[in-house]
């Protein structure tokens, strides 16, 4: 079901090939009437060559999984052509046992029932659980893979040290390693993907399925004056998170942020694309990004997002250098102490 208009990459060092743009249904299920909207989004994505669909038990407290399962059944698409992923989180909102053996066994059964599937392609540990031994969580994940309830596993928002610990445990026991980390990545949030995870890429070949490529809409062009639109961030399950994100990336540095955003808009105009397309193209231009997970406020919005694959081809080294000048936030690389020369002592 691959499309010539889409690019596909292998997820980490696995043989699982996924579209460079994916769809996430995080906003599904929190309010009434989202099922048809979700179906229209999934349908448009599949028509555009997207094969990667991400959900989680936490989204809509299970309702998002149900909606995605209904969407797949309604569409009648070939399950083998789709890559479906879900995530299990250590929060009392969905289970008091964290990422324990007991809870993960229960969680996968509930998720598969809601999704109306026999298996998910990738199972994620959706945040690190500091109260359950990591070895216990990884052991049961491997058992679930042996039971064909998942084919691969990954992590979400684990730091580099925690990822290294995951791989060390797998090495010790001969278990299946995680193939992907799901992490926030966009023009304003770069350090983990571009610096902290570099040793993990090199040592273990992990892929990344990044979320928030438009920084919750901040890079869409709607905030280029540095102000929040009336009514924005005042309701909804993630309104407080979005407001905090605005304050972090724009509100607390308004003058500099406006200059950057308006500069990106001007560059996008030169390239003949939207500012949102430029921001998405920049994310997937990074070879360490396997896929960028899209959200949408309407199915029509996905038309522009999917076109970012073509915009990516316009990001020449010269254009990328201009973007770097506008952003001014490239993470400093880790210190190479072999090249360190101390200052000579003063006499």
UniProtKB/TrEMBL annotation:
Pfam families: Aldo_ket_red. This is NADP-dependent oxidoreductase domain-containing protein. Transmembrane segments: none annotated. Residues 21-326 form the NADP-dependent oxidoreductase domain. GO terms for molecular function: oxidoreductase activity. It comes from the Eukaryota. The lineage of its organism: Eukaryota, Sar, Alveolata, Ciliophora, Postciliodesmatophora. InterPro entries: K_chnl_volt-dep_bsu_KCNAB-rel, NAD(P)_OxRdtase_dom_sf, NADP_OxRdtase_dom.
């Amino acid at each position: 079901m691959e499309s010539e208009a889409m690019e596909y990459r292998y997820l980490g060092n696995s043989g699982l090939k996924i579209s460079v743009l994916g769809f996430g249904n995080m906003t599904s299920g929190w309010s009434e009437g989202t099922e048809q909207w979700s179906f229209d989004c999934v349908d448009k994505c599949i028509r555009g060559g997207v094969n990667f669909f991400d959900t989680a038990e936490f989204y809509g407290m299970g309702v998002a999984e149900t909606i995605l399962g209904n969407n797949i059944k309604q569409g009648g698409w070939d399950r083998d052509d789709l890559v479906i992923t879900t995530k299990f989180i250590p929060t009392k909102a969905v289970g008091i046992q964290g990422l324990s053996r007991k809870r993960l066994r229960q969680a996968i059964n509930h998720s598969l029932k809601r999704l109306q599937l026999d298996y998910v392609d990738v199972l994620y540990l959706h945040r690190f659980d500091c109260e359950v031994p990591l070895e216990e969580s990884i052991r049961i994940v491997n058992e679930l893979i042996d039971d064909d309830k998942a084919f691969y596993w990954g992590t979400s928002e684990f730091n580099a040290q925690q990822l290294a610990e995951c791989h060390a445990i797998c090495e010790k026991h001969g278990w299946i390693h995680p193939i992907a980390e799901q992490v926030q990545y966009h023009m304003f949030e770069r350090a983990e993907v571009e610096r902290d995870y570099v040793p993990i890429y090199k040592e273990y070949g992990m892929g990344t399925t990044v979320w928030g490529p438009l920084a919750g809409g901040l890079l869409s062009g709607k905030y280029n004056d540095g102000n929040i639109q009336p009514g924005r961030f005042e309701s909804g399950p993630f309104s407080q998170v979005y407001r905090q994100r605005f304050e972090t990336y724009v509100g607390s540095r308004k003058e500099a942020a406006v200059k950057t955003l308006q500069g990106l808009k001007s560059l996008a105009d030169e390239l003949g694309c939207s500012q949102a397309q430029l921001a998405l193209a920049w994310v997937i231009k990074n070879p360490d990004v396997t896929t960028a997970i899209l959200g949408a406020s309407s199915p029509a919005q996905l038309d522009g997002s999917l076109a970012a694959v073509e915009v990516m081809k316009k990001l020449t080294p010269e254009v990328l250098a201009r973007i770097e000048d506008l952003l001014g936030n490239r993470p400093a690389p880790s210190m190479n102490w072999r090249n360190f020369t101390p200052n000579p002592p003063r006499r």
